[in-house]
Every structure is written in C-alpha cells, then in structure tokens.
Amino acid sequence: MATQQYQGGCHCGELRFTANLDLSKSIACNCSICSKRGLILTFTPLGEFTQTAGAASNREYLFNKHMIHHQFCPTCGVEAFAFGEMPDGTKMAAVNVRCLDGIDLDAVHPTPFDGASR
Fold first, then answer.
1. Of 24, 37, 100, 106, whose CA is between 20 and 30 Å from 2?
2. What Gene Ontology molecular-function terms does this entry list (predicted)?
3. What does DSSP assign to residue 37?
C-alpha cells in the first residue's frame, strides 16, 4: 500500500481529521491501553495530519511515561488519534485505523508490536 489521504473521526463525529497515511505500516500494540481499546495504529508526521473538527473539544489521557498524548472525544469516548514523537524526535500523529471512514479492516494487516515490554 502507498500513502494516501484518509478522513476519519470519532463515533459521534465531534472529532474529525484528515491524514496522509500508509496503512501497510500499521501496528497492533499489546500495551495496556492499546489492547483494552482495541487500537490499530498507523503513524504520520504531524504536518500530514489535520484535525478538521472538534479541536477545542479534545480530551487528553496520559499514562506511563507521558510520551503519547491520547486524544479522545468527550461525548462518545472514542480515541481517534494521539500525538507524540518518533524516536528521532519528529512530531507525529498516531491514527486509530478503526476510525477511518470506509476502511475495510480485513484488508489491513497490522504488524504486532510488543509495547507491553517497554
């Protein structure tokens, strides 16, 4: 898969975004938050992500090392994306693939990632 533009958002639509993503680089992390929320994530530089609705509404959750700023909707509770930094310091957005509009999840094959051991 190549990088392409996607739109998505939370369940109720209060938080919406557009992002350029390569779904072939998605991961299924086994850390406590990703496994409990069922997140499938893919990452993009922050400049390739735009929140198009609800930026003033985002609620944030930090845990563990406070490295990833998990954003969730105050109305429906869905985490559609998060913000953080790549290992090289590049600011990035982590997008919940399950929140992309019209996505065929059977066509996405996330790579397992052992976040529980980090």
1. 37
2. carbon-sulfur lyase activity; metal ion binding
3. H
